[in-house]
Amino acid sequence: GGGGGGGGGEREERQPPMAPEESGWAVSCPEGFGTLRDPAYFETFGRWQNRYGRDNLRLSGHFLSIFLQYVDPILEEALDACPSYVLEIMMNAVLEVETKQGLNAAKSWISQIFRLRDRALLQAEGETLRKLQILMDEWSVDIAAVYPKFLHLKRLGPSPALSEASTPDEHCLGQRFFLYKLDDFFYQPGTLSCLQGQWGTEVVMHHYLQHNCRTEDPEEANWFYVPMYTTCRYVHLNNTMPEVEDLMSMDAVSDAHIWNPLVETLRSSKYYQRRQGQDHIFLFADGQGPRVWHSYDIFRSESIFLSPESKCPTWGEPVRRYLDVKPCLSSWKDIIIPGHTDFARIQYMQKHNKASQERQLLATFHGRTPGAHEAYADCAVRAALLRLGQRGPHVDVGGFVEDYPERKGDAHFCFVPAGTSPWTNHLYESFYAGCIPVILSDEYEVAFAEELDWPSFSIKWPEAEVGEGLYQYLEGLATYLPHRVFAMKVALERHACWFNWYSTDPTCSPYLLIHRKLARLASLRRSRSRFWNVDEEYFGATNSHEPPLAFAHLRRPTRFKHFEGEDSNFTYLSSENL
Q1: pTM beyond 0.70
Q2: How far apart are CA 110 and CA 224, in angstroms?
Q3: Which of 74, 227, 298, 543 is exposed most, by the fewest CB atoms within 10 A?
């Protein structure tokens, strides 16, 4: 999609212009400009662009090159001739600008796009104006609509405008959050790169708290949020370090580049140490975070963990002899959150969400399966679904297909089978397609289970019983109890806002449920100190060489259960860098 323009010479005979309803018409440019004169180029680009999600860094760099080489030198001419094309090319380059040049550069870049857009809308007439209006409609349902929320021009949550006040006593339930400022490497490769896909929760929660419920004064904070894009960083390191040969060596790389620097940050934080981390919050985008963080046992008993996955693999642990996964969240304090679904994908699935009476499929699932993907060889429940798919075309099961969102919108039920881990984002996507989820993962603990009536809009079926009985049950519901299927679909759609990280409804969003859970925790837990009846003024005041009392335990001389020859120097217990 996109490319260098045609040169001089005779122009080919023009084709009839595309109708407005045709894909790509908004960026068509019959006359062209500069050296970009071939109408077929613009039409091809428009049709391709209709399927592009602005999610490829290499292509984003390609579009930036096109702009700099062919458009920017004659920007005024290009805007007069083809404003929609110019704006679309620039929007495609946002990912490259933010990843390579940083948030401030991307903020300036997109602000320029909006200035050029506003000018073009004021000056355009007739067909050109219609093309711009169509382009703006397209931007409203793709990632372009939320770029400003991640570039500090707007904010996530119920009050998008930064100029609007957001008082902690309203949406935040009176709670104030202090955000740690970690080194830049914790956020590489970049905000927009890490936003995309199911692990984008790391980014959305960070940016939500940057503009909502925040305090710059740690002394008045109720909670301390430690923002880190660890899953994104882990994947990026894995993709950029060819010397890493296996999972265990990748874990060692993660220790060096993620976890050891994080532990040192927390060790030297008096706000973490003073209450043993009770008021500190960490977010893991999946269960691999706690598994890879070898030292997380230091923090797990008191701090609050947010994650869409409550179970971690037991690789290399003694408990492996008993179980393949173990709990890595505690139900009494930690919060299971929904995975992230891209804004554009939400809009697309809602667009193809058919009414119950119009649906042709009984059930559907498409994804990785045993036989097709080596890592899924032990995913027996997916193999069982493949066999179930042989019942006929109304049970639609198989590998990846391009029109899966449309198939979800055409099915009464969406199978949600376990994969290489118990959780899968197939569950949360089903809400936007109006496709009643049938959870086939015994260890899957769903988000907000205590707050929401999951049985009213979903089914959870034992993995061992996936077969003819499940088919007969679903077929019976659709055939003999269509009113119940309809009611479940209505409830599903009504609850979708609780799982939508882009919800602006002040009464229904994942942020609100998180605030409620935190408020309950704060009311139940009494903050406690390690020491009492101690004159704190002595520590770090009278004796200037002494760190504050909050760090006193890190200097304790006793070592417990220390065996001769043991390979440990207990690096956490040190007064250095405090």
Answers
A1: yes
A2: 31
A3: 543
